[in-house]
Amino acid sequence: MQEIGHWINGRRVAGTSGRFADVYNPATGEVQAKVALASKAELDAAVEAAAKAQPKWAATNPQRRARVMMEFVRLLNRDMDKLAEALSREHGKTLPDARGDVQRGLEVIEFCIGAPHLLKGEFTDSAGPGIDMYSMRQPLGVAAGITPFNFPAMIPMWKMGPAPARGNAFILKPSERDPSVPLMLAELMQEAGLPDGVLQVINGDKEAVDAILDNRTIAAVGFVGSTPIAEYIYARGCANGKRVQCFGGAKNHMIVMPDADMDQAADALVGAGYGAAGERCMAISVAVPVGEATADRLIEKLVPRIEKLKVGPYTAGSDVDYGPLVTRAAMERVKALITSGVEQGAELVMDGRDFTLQGYENGFFVGPTLFDRATREMEIYKQEIFGPVQTTVRAKSYEEALGLAMDHEYGNGTAIFTRDGDTARDFANRVNIGMVGINVPIPVPLAYHTFGGGKKSGFGDLNQHGPDAFRFYTRTKTVTARWPSGLKEGGEFHFKPME
Fold first, then answer.
1. pTM for the full model?
2. Which residues have CB under 8 Å from 318's CB, separation 6+?
3. What does the pLDDT look like over 125-138, one tens digit per residue?
4. When you count CB atoms within 10 A of the terminal residue's CB, does the N or C end of the chain come out lower?
């Protein structure tokens, strides 16, 4: 059986801890590989090597660092299909969805090509008599990222691109559930010209996470995952004096106003709720129609669309809408939450618990599930389900609908569907959510804006990608300078090329 190790100093290496985790084929339930789980000693050795490589990389001018990112983009496009197939094989998403995973990461790398401009500081001439003041953005040194299973290409690139583009070395600890693509990305980064040691990929579990949080050399840590782990990493990382940004769970509401285009709203809910089997932190898992008539019309539109969804393995063709969940434990958790919704009184319109697929009976599949008339006290409303389950909560008024989104403990994303500009503007201004869509169900910002939520969905002062990433991975230094008067004698008459 294949054993997956780590990426250290520009090459793949075997693990030495003797501990492994199973990597499944989610469609069949079979173990297809074993991934090494790093010890603290392995993590610390990787950080030490990264720290040795970082000063020379930081001294490389930003333009040359940007050229590595430029070549990395070319290689990502070259190997798009290969990356997507490896991603689908371990995660279970459809091939089109896997390509989208790679593409949204690639777009952040494209933004990193602009590092020379974005790293410029500020300058004040004659701040005092003969005094100039200026600021510089300098790398932190060694940074680390801990990334989740649901986007094994995109989210690692959100971190392994911006951090090195700013002159840092970077330690990536991806999810042990689907580890192959991050290692493939590291190989492509080296092929693009990144020096050995600047990027290290360490597979592991909590032991590796704690080693990252406790390592004194690592100056900053970024995390994406569940809220309980986000809170743990944020508290422990900050206690150890690190700069930390953590992004946790979500429960994203989509308000549907009576004047909305109901076909458009239904299409949006099906795609946003069931795409990637609901394993997205920006999935719309709560529909909030305003008024009984609006709710009845929406359910009437949703049911036939959901009934037509094709569920299957990525190998079944490009018309598959979504695949299995990532593990058996994830599948059982989703089914248990569906059962809790029934027991707590929600109306189960469509039940996906007994879904089976011939030839894939042991796969981790859950059929599309739809609840109506749920309430805020129910677990299916309070918890992030992370599965193909759509929950409808009926609201009597716009204010009640707005209150549902604002009162929930998560604040990642939200959306409103309406034809009324006043309502849309009021919603965008008042709602206390990090990312807002107006007639857009999944409002994930493009790479040159920042991604991040509020409340228990985000911890830390700076968001991911966009301008905030340049701030997070750099330290601002301000210099006040006074020079004695007089000119340097002599002159140089040759225009020297950049070294």
1. 0.94
2. 94, 95, 96
3. 998 888 999 999 99
4. C
